[in-house]
Amino acid sequence: MLVLTRKEDESIMIGDDIEVKVLDLRENQVKLGIVAPRSVAVHRREVYLAIQAENAQAAELSQVDSIANLIPR
């Protein structure tokens, strides 16, 4: 893990096309701005984990449906 210190209005670059900028600092909160190409998905971690869980569940259901279609009725 890379740990960086940034002040308000400073930013970091990830590769050539992603910029993470510190917009505001208040008490125990930091507001970040992220500039990235539309092809790059940007989510809060809890949203990302929920999407991953839904995708895994959908894949499991799809496999069950595929197996059920193999059994003659």
Write up what this structure looks like:
By secondary structure, the protein is α+β, with helices and mostly antiparallel strands. The protein folds into 2 domains: 38 residues, no CATH class; 31 residues. 36% of the residues lie in helices and 27% in strands. The protein is built from 1 helix and 3 strands. Strands 1-2-3 form a 3-stranded antiparallel beta sheet, with no helix packed on it. The longest helix has 26 residues. The mean pLDDT is 90.
Question: Would you kindly provide a brief summary of this structure?
Answer:
The chain is 36% helix and 27% strand.
Largest sheet, if any? 3 strands, antiparallel
Helix share, percent: 25-40%
Succession of helices and strands = EEEH
Structural class: alpha+beta
Share of β-strand residues: 25-35%
Strand line-up across the major sheet: 1-2-3
Overall shape: it is elongated
* Average pLDDT, all residues: 90
Low-confidence stretches: none
Report the span from N to C terminus.
54 Å
Radius of gyration: 20 Å
Number of helices: 1
Number of DSSP strands?
A: 3
Tally of structural domains: 2
